[in-house]
Specification:
Layout: H1 2-24, H2 35-61, H3 65-91, H4 98-121, H5 126-163, H6 172-191, H7 199-221, H8 228-232, H9 246-250, H10 257-272, H11 283-289, H12 294-304, H13 309-327, H14 333-339, H15 345-356, H16 360-370
Helix pairs in contact: 1-2, 1-7, 2-3, 3-4, 3-5, 3-6, 4-5, 5-6, 6-7, 13-14
Length: 385
């Protein structure tokens, strides 16, 4: 079993070293707003290199139960900090400050030194300190979970308001990476009470986790630019497409006939130009283009269409998609969803089923047979409410 353990450590060392090289090779714009992302790249690469070196050392030293369990716990604490910090930088850069990282590194380092000191000089009381350290690791994972999901929800709200669109699926990879990190943290805790055989499960699992985190880093560097403007925007200045303001509650119909006619004409021109198909356009830019304000737009949409701007725009996109599904049978639904303005195909499929009562493939099959190209929003009575 010890040979298997050593072989696994060697494999892990090589794979993680290769991932570190791929992370170092990521190109990040030199703009100031990407500064924390560049720091996250360096930090993540350093954590990968450190873990690779530790695994290589374990390959030569072999399995020592007490020492290896302590090493695993300490490494898990540092890696949880570094990985959580990296993932937070993707979605909420302002949360990860030098002070935030420095205080936690100092705390983990002090606890580490204390545990090694007690282990070698006071072995009789070492188990008490060891299991206290394990409890602190559990607390660390819980606190990181609270911080991550709170930050994720804040960022989603900012993105949805800033762009008047649903961005939850586009953050799915980061969310999955964090959940995997939690699973690895729990598995690291399991190694504290099991033998070397558990590493046959643990090592492949954390290799998968680290690979996904590296992919997240590579992927999200290319799309972080759409997150940064939204999370750095002052919330008091960000118009929202859904939540009514106090003024609109008090006087929702305080729009003159001339304003209604003017906004209706501008929206018709906006639709005729296909502007609704454009993705990642800030809502405030749309309002400026239409020469209106959030309260007026909200009241107009409620009066004219009985829904908010986001839902109205999605219906326009779905109308286009329903037509394209029939007119272009060679095009896949995912390609059509991109063409009509959806940033994520899962959003498109969810909305299409909600508004038509069937999937895109079912719509194409049904209406190809009947030869009809019907407005999808008129086929489902629930959509009229």
């Amino acid at each position: 079993m010890e040979k298997t353990y050593c072989d696994l450590m060697l494999l892990a060392s090589g794979v993680i070293a290769a991932l570190a090289v791929s992370i170092i090779g990521i190109k990040i714009p030199s703009k100031q707003e990407f500064r924390k992302l560049r720091t996250a790249r360096a930090t993540l690469a350093a954590s990968f290199i450190t873990l690779s070196i530790l695994n290589f050392i374990c390959y030569f030293t072999g399995y020592d139960e007490d020492l290896d369990r302590l090493n695993t716990m300490i490494v898990a604490a540092f890696q949880a900090l570094l990985l959580t910090g990296t993932l937070l930088v993707f979605i909420r850069p302002d949360v990860v400050t030098g002070k935030w990282v420095g205080l936690q590194v100092a705390a983990i380092s002090i606890i580490t030194a204390l545990l090694y000191f007690v282990m070698f000089l006071f072995p009789g009381i070492y188990p008490v300190f060891f299991y206290t350290g394990a409890a602190l690791l559990v607390l660390q994972l819980v606190l990181y979970s609270i911080s991550f999901f709170k930050s994720q929800n804040m960022t989603l709200n900012d993105l949805n308001d800033y762009y008047a669109d649903d961005f939850s699926p586009r953050l799915g990879g980061i969310r999955a990476g964090f959940i995997l990190m939690l699973i690895i943290g729990v598995m690291a805790l399991c190694t504290l009470v099991t033998g070397p055989w558990f590493y046959a499960i643990f090592v492949p699992a954390y290799l998968i986790c680290y690979t996904i985190v590296a992919i997240c880093m590579i992927r999200y560097v290319n799309i972080t630019s759409f997150i940064l403007p939204a999370v750095s925007q002052d919330s008091t200045e960000t118009p929202t497409a859904e939540q009514p303001s106090e003024a609109s509650h008090k006087n929702p119909a305080n729009i003159s006939d001339n304003q209604i006619i003017e906004l209706r004409n501008k929206l018709e021109s906006w639709v005729a130009a296909g502007e609704y198909r454009h993705r990642d356009i800030p809502y405030k830019d749309i309002l400026e283009h239409l020469d209106t304000d959030p309260a007026t737009m909200r009241a107009f949409m409620k009066s004219e269409h009985g829904m908010d701007f986001r839902s109205w725009r999605n219906r326009l996109r779905l109308n286009d998609a329903s037509r394209m599904l029939l007119e272009h049978p060679e095009m896949k639904a995912e390609r059509i969803s991109e063409a009509v303005g959806y940033s994520d195909s899962s959003n498109f499929h969810t909305d299409f089923r909600k508004f038509t009562g069937m999937s895109a493939s079912e719509w194409r099959k049904t209406h190809t047979k009947t030869g009809q190209c019907q407005n999808p929003l008129s086929t489902n009575p629930e959509n009229q409410s």
